[in-house]
Amino acid sequence: MCLAHWRMVPLIIQRAVYKFYRPGQCDDMNPSENWHRAADAAIAAVALLEGKPVRKKMLKELLDVPVNRLPLPLVAKLTKLRS
Prior knowledge:
Layout: H1 3-6, H2 11-20, H3 33-49, H4 56-63, H5 72-82
Helix pairs in contact: 2-3, 3-4
């Protein structure tokens, strides 16, 4: 993910991506399930903010994040999706 998109990712999700990142996971092609979930939530957040379609699996990961920890524009888009 480029820096411009990374800056769109809510801090709570950025922290989860870093927390579950393991050095060498790209080399051995064996990232953890938790890292995948955090990465999916990051991708879903950016896609929603840009008005692009989001895969259901990725959306599920984003919906697991506490709403009070997300920025208002993202909460508004999630609320619109739920209705």
